[in-house]
């Protein structure tokens, strides 16, 4: 009897081993891998999981949070340092639930509250891509630069239960453009992670359009991630669906140009998306009502243009603008379409928070290079030649000219932004300011 059991057990083990070997040697579904690659681009995974000068998806990118710096993880299929030993279920738990394979909770720098809306069928495609379409790399993961006790991870499990939504299930597909756009914006695109203000718990104040706080603007790396709702002055109220789609495809349009983190989004993600998906995203964004109803759009006023042409405005702000900005943005404030952005009626210029405008003046900016718009334009940094007071005068002038109607900026406002500049930029800027 024991002999029969032993033979049966051996046969079972051999059957399981053969099945496992067969699964490992099964042909890869290249169509699924290709779809996963597209979805990974739509989710802009490479931007966060690739350090400057590092291998794609090998992690190590520092991300500042209010409690310290966290570093993105290696998500290549390396078995020792990446996710090569992850099952599809492990992958899903990390992506949509915020739980690592070892059971620890992820920091919400990983936008799993948005990815909770990604359908299981798309998770399957993403898993296929990361396991079969990405080059394994042995770059070790870095620990967080967060002091104890804030570095303890167990409170993150409470955070997840309070702020992270339930994950979605596969269901009947609704292929209408606005539903598709909602899925991309709220889910894979995780637009709210940057463009929605954060609460005291560092949570997004809204994850869907149930609240007008959703996509109403947030601050990321010292930049204001603009209001994407229908507000006429500081949102997308004056943009058409085509304006939005063109911006996502090329990083520029007649209203603005991508800069900061958004330039990376266009370069790594949205330029590769289909026109149908970009149009769907645009349709959804245009469906969002404004934060403030009944606010009239700004109208262009030519008085500033004429005063600059005649030399009748000798104020410090006007002279600073002429000496540093007018060559590209013109005395009309209208710039050059899709080359040097307009300042007149610009949402960035008229935003209540002037952080982006100040930072661009101090540190400069660069448009993304895209296949549809390969010419890349850049604005030089002026922080090394202008004092805080001079920057404040110029920015205040811009925010109150050509029909713009935004508040004044003080030298102390500029000093706060300058303090948070990357070290190499700040050193040069501070050296010049010290001489003045």
Automatic annotation (TrEMBL):
Main location: membrane
Keywords: Cell membrane, Electron transport, Heme, Iron, Membrane, Metal-binding, Repeat, Signal, Transport
Location within or outside the cell: Cell membrane
Cytochrome c domain ranges (all copies): 31-134, 176-289, 312-402
Keyword Cell inner membrane on entry: no
A Pfam short name: Cytochrom_C
Signal peptide interval: 1-20
Keyword tRNA processing: no
This protein's name: Cytochrome c
UniProt source species: Herbaspirillum chlorophenolicum
């Amino acid at each position: 009897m024991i002999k029969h059991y032993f033979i049966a057990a051996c046969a079972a083990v051999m059957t399981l081993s053969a099945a496992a070997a067969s699964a490992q040697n099964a042909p890869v579904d290249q169509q699924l891998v290709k779809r996963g690659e597209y979805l990974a681009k739509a989710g802009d995974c490479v931007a966060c999981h690739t350090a400057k000068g590092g291998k794609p998806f090998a992690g190590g990118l520092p991300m500042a949070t209010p409690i310290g710096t966290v570093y993105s993880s290696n998500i290549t299929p390396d078995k020792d340092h990446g996710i090569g030993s992850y099952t599809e279920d492990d992958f899903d738990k990390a992506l949509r639930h915020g739980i690592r394979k070892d059971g620890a909770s992820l920091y919400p720098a990983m936008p799993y509250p948005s990815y909770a809306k990604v359908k299981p069928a798309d998770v399957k495609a993403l898993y296929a891509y990361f396991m079969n379409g990405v080059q394994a790399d042995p770059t070790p993961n870095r620990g967080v630069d967060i002091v104890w006790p804030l570095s303890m991870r167990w409170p993150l499990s409470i955070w997840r239960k309070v702020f992270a939504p339930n994950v979605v299930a596969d269901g009947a597909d609704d292929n209408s453009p606005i539903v598709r756009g909602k899925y991309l914006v709220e889910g894979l695109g995780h637009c709210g992670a940057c463009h929605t203000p954060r609460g005291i718990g560092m949570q997004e104040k809204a994850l869907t359009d149930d609240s007008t706080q959703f996509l109403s603007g947030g601050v990321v790396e010292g930049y204001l991630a603009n209001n994407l709702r229908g507000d006429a002055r500081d949102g997308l109220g004056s943009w058409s669906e085509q304006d939005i789609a063109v911006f996502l495809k090329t990083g520029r349009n007649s209203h603005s140009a991508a800069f900061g983190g958004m330039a990376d989004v266009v370069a790594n993600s949205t330029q590769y998306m289909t026109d149908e998906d970009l149009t769907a995203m645009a349709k959804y964004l245009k469906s969002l009502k404004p934060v403030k109803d009944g606010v009239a759009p700004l109208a262009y006023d030519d008085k500033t243009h004429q005063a600059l042409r005649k030399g009748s405005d000798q104020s410090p702000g006007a002279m600073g603008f002429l000496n540093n900005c007018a060559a590209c943005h013109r005395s009309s404030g209208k710039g050059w379409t899709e080359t040097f952005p307009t300042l007149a009626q610009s949402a960035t210029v008229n935003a209540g928070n002037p952080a982006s405008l100040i930072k661009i003046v101090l540190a400069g900016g660069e448009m993304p290079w895209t296949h549809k718009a390969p010419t890349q334009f850049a604005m030089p940094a002026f922080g090394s030649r202008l004092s805080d007071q001079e920057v404040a005068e110029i920015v205040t002038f811009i925010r109150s000219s050509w029909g713009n109607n935004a508040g004044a900026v003080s030298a102390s406002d500029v000093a706060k932004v300058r303090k948070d500049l990357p070290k190499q930029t700040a050193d040069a800027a501070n050296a010049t300011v010290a001489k003045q």
